[in-house]
């Protein structure tokens, strides 16, 4: 972008530009003409006095419509461009008015309530005083000496309606001259959710820490930062341990302590806090004449010895005890659940699992009773005891809540999976099904089978054992065998899964491979006359046929047949040319035509060739 017009507050530079023919902002106007304000970042700039101010001419023209509605007030708020917050105490009054309209539920174009209409009219009449608010553009003012130190002082305050913060630049020259200047301010309307005043003060302190962090990052020099608040409670929270408070206080204190050091915070009297103007609001005329707002408290221009005592002790009566998070000390007795010494996941057979478990129990018994130790093979009783151990272990692992409920003689919850089975604890303390087969002529295990979980390694091994016992039968047979003593919820699905992965069943249930047929020879798929290609000598028996033909021609064979009364004929049963006549004998048909056909045309090729 090519800059074509220039403007400066230096008269010497402006005169030099005119001599060189450089086009300036007001080169077309004479010196006596009224120069319009120059816009600099949205604000008006008086280049001769080097002052920045808000030009309310367009705003007053817009407000001359005399419209009184929530929509119009929102439009007025949107037309006020105040990036550094020089109009904060005056604009916050209009923002609070808009919040009141929102709380009352006033429609956008409805008339204002009488009380709020009076506030709006009062604010409108005070808007003309905005022309008197002007601040120097240069933070250091007329100081042309080298600075020895630069500080940033941040003040925060809150009320039930609003909260905010304001920053000042305090600089000391080499001649020990101390000056202050307004940097910026931020104001917020209090949230609709009602908060206590200490919490609002802490929120204002957080806004102050955020704004100071942003301003300090824009400076090209290092400056000491001081934070001031007139709330002893929020001051105590910031300098305390954040973990001792409730989440709302804890989160904000943690962020404040991450943006600033707690030692940078101090307490000041409320009358010396310029942020009080933001929290309460004031008129434009009073704001323009308020030295506390533009330059801060008087003691800022003094040495630190005259500053308020930044660190003071907090009395118990000044604390907000309801924000403390009381923590009671509780002694917890942790009982470690003893897992089985035998890792069931390492076994693929229930027989091996029960044998190993029985050996472990024998070792324990032999260690306890030395004189009655057993050294021979595992007995059947020991195998049954091992199986009983695993049944109890699995049930207590998966159905401990149900077992405790039944022991207290209480009803099972509807959320329990086995509630529909009406379980009960048997004499052996195993969960069993009540069932409806009490009068049936069955064994006890079939009437009241033991309940086992479906997603369990022991149950899978049990299904595999029952499946092998019945010779790898199908799902129904395996499930019937299993339910003679055990009941597994959704057991059919588990049995299907076990049979599907059984290697022996996979071999027997495997489908035979389909052999792909070869391509047909050309002679079978090519259209040709009948008997062109025949298979009369398919077996390559020309020699045998010739031998038998010679025998038939032999005179001895003919005499032998005649003596024995044998009548020789060549008849093929069920041939297409053989029919049964009325006398019960076979006769030949189409023989003449076949003979004629065979005599007419000889085959071109035989399979033996």
Automatic annotation (TrEMBL):
InterPro entries in alphabetical order: Integrase_H2C2, Retrotrans_Pao
Pfam short name (any one): Peptidase_A17
Source organism, top-level taxon: Eukaryota
Integrase zinc-binding domain location: 460-510
Protein name as catalogued: Integrase catalytic domain-containing protein
Organism: Trichonephila clavata (Joro spider)
Gene: AVEN_75581_1
């Amino acid at each position: 972008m090519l800059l074509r017009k220039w403007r400066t507050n230096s008269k010497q530079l402006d005169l030099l530009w005119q001599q060189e023919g450089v086009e300036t902002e007001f080169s077309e106007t004479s010196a006596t003409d009224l120069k319009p304000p120059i816009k600099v970042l949205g604000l008006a700039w008086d280049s001769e006095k080097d002052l920045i101010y808000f030009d309310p001419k367009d705003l007053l023209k817009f407000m001359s419509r005399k419209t009184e509605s929530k929509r119009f007030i929102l439009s007025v708020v949107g037309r006020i461009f105040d990036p550094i917050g020089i109009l904060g105490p005056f604009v916050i009054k209009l923002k609070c008015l808009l919040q009141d309209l929102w709380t009352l539920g006033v429609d956008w174009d409805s008339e204002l309530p009488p009380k709020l209409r009076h506030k709006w009219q009062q604010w409108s009449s005070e808007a003309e005083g905005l022309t008197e608010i002007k601040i120097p553009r240069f933070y250091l003012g007329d100081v042309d000496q080298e600075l020895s130190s630069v500080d940033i002082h941040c003040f925060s305050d809150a009320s039930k309606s609003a909260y905010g913060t304001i920053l000042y630049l305090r600089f000391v020259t080499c001649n020990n001259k101390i000056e202050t200047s307004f940097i910026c301010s931020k104001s917020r309307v209090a949230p609709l959710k009602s908060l206590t005043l200490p919490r609002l003060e802490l929120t204002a302190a957080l806004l102050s820490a955020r704004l100071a962090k942003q301003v300090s990052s824009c400076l090209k020099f290092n400056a000491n930062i001081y934070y001031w608040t007139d709330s002893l409670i929020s001051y105590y929270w910031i300098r305390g341990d954040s973990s001792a408070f409730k989440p709302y206080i804890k989160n904000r204190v943690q962020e404040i302590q991450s943006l600033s050091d707690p030692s940078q915070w101090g307490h000041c009297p409320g009358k010396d806090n310029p942020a009080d103007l933001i929290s309460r609001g004031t008129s434009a005329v009073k704001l323009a004449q308020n030295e506390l707002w533009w330059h801060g408290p008087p003691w800022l221009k003094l040495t630190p010895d005259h500053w308020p005592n930044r660190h003071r002790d907090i009395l118990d009566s000044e604390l907000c005890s309801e924000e403390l998070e009381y923590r009671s000390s509780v002694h917890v007795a942790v009982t470690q659940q003893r897992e089985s010494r035998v890792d069931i996941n390492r076994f693929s057979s229930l027989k091996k699992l029960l044998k190993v478990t029985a050996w472990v129990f024998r070792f324990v018994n032999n260690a306890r009773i030395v004189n009655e130790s057993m050294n021979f093979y595992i007995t059947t009783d020991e195998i049954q005891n091992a199986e009983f151990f695993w049944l109890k272990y699995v049930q207590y692992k998966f159905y401990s809540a149900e077992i405790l409920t039944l022991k207290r003689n209480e009803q099972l919850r509807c959320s329990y999976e086995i509630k529909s089975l009406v379980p009960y604890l048997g004499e052996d303390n195993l969960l069993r099904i009540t069932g409806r087969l009490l009068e049936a002529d069955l064994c006890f295990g079939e009437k009241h089978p033991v309940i086992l979980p479906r997603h369990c390694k022991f149950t899978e091994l049990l299904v595999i054992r029952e499946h092998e016992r019945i010779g790898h039968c199908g799902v129904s047979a395996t499930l019937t065998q299993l339910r003679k003593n055990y009941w597994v919820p959704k057991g059919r699905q588990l049995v299907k899964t076990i049979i599907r992965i059984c290697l022996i069943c996979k071999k027997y249930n495997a489908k035979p491979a389909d052999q792909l047929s070869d391509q047909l020879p050309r002679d079978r798929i090519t259209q040709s006359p009948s008997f062109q290609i025949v298979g009369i000598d398919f077996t390559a028996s020309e020699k045998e046929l010739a031998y038998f033909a010679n025998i038939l021609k032999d005179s001895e064979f003919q005499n032998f047949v005649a003596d024995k009364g044998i009548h020789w004929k060549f008849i093929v049963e069920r041939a297409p040319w053989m029919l049964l006549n009325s006398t019960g004998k076979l006769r030949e048909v189409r023989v003449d035509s076949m003979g004629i056909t065979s005599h007419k045309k000889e085959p071109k090729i035989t399979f033996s060739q």
